[in-house]
Structure formats: structure tokens, C-alpha cells
Amino acid sequence: MNTIDLQIPRQAATLRLLVEDRIRSAIAAGHFKPGQRLIERELCEQIGVGRTSVREALRQLEAEGLVVTVPHRGPEVSSISHDEARQLYELRALLEGFAGRNFAEHGSDAAIAELGRAVDGFATAAQGSDRATLVAAKTRFYAVLMQGAANTFVTQSLTTLHNRITLLRVTSMTQSGRLADSVAEIRAIFDAIVARDPDRAETACKHHIAMAAKVALAVLARQEAEKPA
Fold first, then answer.
1. Which residues contact 189 (CB under 8 A, 6 or more apart)?
2. What is the pTM of this model?
3. Helix axes 109-126, 82-106, angle to 10 degrees
4. The listed CATH number (1.20.120.530, 3.30.1340.30, 2.40.160.20, 1.10.630.10) that belongs to domain 82-226
5. How much is the pLDDT for 7?
6. Which CATH class is domain 10-77?
């Protein structure tokens, strides 16, 4: 019987994941903006890897909705319309409300402690001016929230939504006054979970998303209005 070698070089896989993460983080931080072309040669130079790694990373990010391939132009950062963003935020509010409720009801003390550290990390990042650090801290908070909710399918769905909403996260957080409000809102989520109050936790999660949506949608509406006819 013939044998097949199914071993995959771990180093190559790790490199691809690192390239994905670098490009994803750059998009999240606003370094690469919606509609901006992602030229392979330039990415290779900036990241310091070969074209194969960059191409594989771009394919994954396209599957996540962060990148789109445009005929005769190649890959570019995806754009989100006002209506698409509204739908994303509506679904995200439902799922994160459920996650907050589940966390309050079933989350372990260790998970709650980890959530508290994530909240403190975001509050600290909010005092600085580095966008990448800020986005990473907020992403960490959501990751711990999903983990504490302990629902595989909600986590999968929210991860997909978060990847798409990444395009708007910096836009909403950097609007005047929004960052301080965001810190207060996630502290309210944490306080409700600590109190083991599922109703309050769900409400706090939904409120946080509603406030982020309000800011981001206002910015998108303004941008769409300013586009040439």
C-alpha cells in the first residue's frame, strides 16, 4: 500500500499566519484604507517576505471580506457601504448581547478575571495615541468576551463580523469623545458580568454596539454624501 506524506512544514504555515496578521492589523489601524490597492511587490518589500506568502495571506483576507480582487486592478482593501455596515452592526448587537448574557450566567471566575485585565488593557491603550495598540487591545477584549461566552458557533459568527467591522473600528473609535465613551461602555459590560446579571450584561453589550454603530454610520453617511455624483 502506497503511503502519502501529509506533513506540512510548520515554518511556512506560521509565516503565512504572521503575514495575514500583519496585513489585517495594518487594515484595522487604518494604514491601508478602504479602496486602496494592495500591490504584492510593495507588500513583499514592506513585510520582508516572498510573493507566495503575500498571495496566500491576501487570499485568506479576501475570504474574510477584508480584501476584494478587482478586475484589471488586483487586490484592494474592501469598502463597506452604509447599508452593509448597518446590517453588520445589527447582527453583531444580537450576537454580542447573547455572548454577554452567556458569560454572566456561565463564565468562570478565571474568565471574568481575564476580562477585567482586557478592560484595563483597553483603558490604558485609550490613553495613548497608537492606533495599532488601541485596535489590538479592543480585539483582545472581544476575544475574551467570546471565549467566556463559551459558544463555538457564536464565536465563529462574531469572528467573521469582527473581521468585516475592522474596516470601521478605527473610524468610530477616533471620533471626538467616542473613545472615552467606549471605555465606559466596556466597563459597564464587565461590571454586569462580575455581578452575574445576564439581563444587564446583554443590555450593556447591545448598547455598546449601538453607540459604535451610531458614530460609524454617521461617518459613512457623510462620506457617501461627499462622493462626486
1. 100, 145, 201, 204, 205, 208
2. 0.80
3. 140
4. 1.20.120.530
5. 44
6. mainly alpha
